[in-house]
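re: ur question from yesterday

yeah so i grabbed the chain u mentioned. its 109 aa long if i counted rite. heres the sequnce exactly as i have it in my notes:
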Amino acid sequence: MATSKKVSELSAITTATADDLLYIVNDPGGTPESFKITVKNALESNVVANAQFGGTLTANSVTSRYSSTPADATAVPSGFQIGAIWSDGSYIYVVTGASALKRVAIATW
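ran it thru and got these structure tokens back, copy pasting raw so excuse formatting
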């Protein structure tokens, strides 16, 4: 049985597998509740896809599960922030403003 420790007192690791668990505090500004989530579920959820990270985020690859084609250059998907990027297979889209999208065609090579 593990001893009780603050999260900040736990040892750190530099790699994780899909079945490893992450500690989650739901609604920290209201009525906080503690939960666990697997790394796999966290990475596959829309919450992570719409998360904002401060500083520099580096990865070998990033995959977006969002692939819808916007109706026009002002149709920013709900919850998407400036800088969000996704593709629909024909174009790569970037949110550049509250109601502004830019796109570039995907070409073969």
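noticed a couple things. The chain has two domains: 1-44, 52-109. also DSSP finds two helices and five strands in the chain.
anyway ttyl
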